[in-house]
Amino acid sequence: MSDSRVDAASPQTDSGFFGQPRALVHIFGVEMWERFSFYGMQGILLIYLYYSATQGGLGMQESVAAGIVGAYGGAVYLSTILGAWVADRMLGAERVLFLSAIVIMAGHIALALLPGFVGVGVGLVLVAIGSGGLKATATSVVGTLYSADDPRRDGGFSLFYLGINLGAFLGPILTGLLQSTLGFHWGFGLAAVGMAAGLVQYSFGRRGLPDEAREVPNPLPRSRYPMVGIIAAAAVIIIVACVLLGVIRAENLALIVVIVVIAAAVAYFTVILSSRRITSEERSRVWGFVPLFITSVAFWALYQQQFTVLTVYSDKQLDRNLFGWEMPVSWVQSINPVFIIVLSGVFAWIWTKMGSRQPSTPVKFALGAMIMGGAFLLFLPFAGGGPNSTPLLAIVGILFVFTVAELLLSPVGLSVATKLAPHAFHTQMVALFFLSVSLGTAVSGQLAVFYDPSNETPYFLTLGLVAVAVGVMLLLAVKPVLRLMKGVR
């Protein structure tokens, strides 16, 4: 194990994992299994909520069910704030990552074993908290493997993204098969098994990570621990009370998450920018992150509709007949990961080959938003076609465009968050990027309420044009944004 620590601490010389630091394989593995469980569960979650009881579901209204899925997805990324804060102030990123994996596994077990809405409530809360903690910290730990100016950094994050999408591909395929043959709870159970596999794998490899991964950059004084406990207990009591009093309902859950995430993002930017622990250069870089944050929100508001509008679209309007056999709805969610697996290595090679000549991060973000908007416009020729009217090949093509947009923005966003992060807010800056994903995901659930299968053109046209416009505005502002980023590209 000692050799692994030396290699991980020497990013300029270690290239044992496809040209990247060997320690990357440990985080690659746990994230792959976490994504297997996460996307496997999410692949069948929406149809579980709105399918009738005779089909094994809970019989909810489709728009309400889509709102819940969007709100849940937003809550996952919102909880990165909690995980990042605990990592930066109390336990360090690596320890939070390990504990979060345990919480995720418990959530999937609850979904598999507890009946009805009780299982959904307990399971989704645990998975949301655990996934949020793991996502922010895994990304931060990957960042510790590279120096700030290592040209392999974006390539390494792209390989890390490959691990994510291997899990995202296999999860919906296998849980969808179990759901369609044995029932929903068998599918949820398989997600729990996948997370258990990730936990075992990571337990063997975690000691090989660099000491920096366990560092607590801004330790909380022990005297303040009781106050943290009181605040946490009060928050739980308030949430439970709001549910019992009907303030928080299934119908308005997505909107509530949107409001909470906006408030959290404003508060977080304010705390970081006003902190005395950051330098003027670090403060400028945080300001440079603001337009990237806004563009990311617009991107994810469209992209995350794979799990809301596109799931309904696939169930109702997509021709899923393959030589007389009907493909499970969840399998559509495995199409995007296939393209990620194929193209992530290509993008990693391109960025590594181009080195300092590659497009800057703001340009990549702008192109990502514009291409994502273009993907929504590609739905227009098939709008209003009726049941089973959209060819499967058309969705494959549209999701290919989704993938190109994603690879221009998502792994690059993870990377730039670690490069722009002030030292005292290293993991929490990554959480800010995930807050943009959280807000976009919650918005995707709220937007799903307006989706009307009988009149789709206004929906796809409006959202597509808005995303393109956001990308164009960032493209026009590239130079001032780069000035704020102070040498970070």
Automatic annotation (TrEMBL):
Molecular-function GO terms, alphabetical: peptide transmembrane transporter activity
Membrane association type: Multi-pass membrane protein
UniProt entry tagged with the keyword Transport: yes
Membrane-crossing residue ranges in chain numbering: 36-53, 65-87, 96-118, 124-146, 158-178, 184-204, 225-248, 254-274, 286-303, 331-351, 363-384, 390-409, 430-451, 457-478
Example of a GO biological process term: oligopeptide transport
Compartments where located: Cell membrane; Membrane
Cellular-component GO terms for this entry: plasma membrane
Entries under InterPro entries matching the protein: Dipep/tripep_permease, MFS_dom, MFS_trans_sf, MFS_Transporters, POT_fam, PTR2_symporter_CS
Keywords from the UniProt entry: Cell membrane, Membrane, Transmembrane, Transmembrane helix, Transport
Cross-referenced Pfam families: PTR2 (PF00854)
Domain of life: Bacteria
CDD domains: MFS_DtpA_like
Family to which this protein belongs: Belongs to the major facilitator superfamily. Proton-dependent oligopeptide transporter (POT/PTR) (TC 2.A.17) family.
Protein name as annotated: POT family proton-dependent oligopeptide transporter
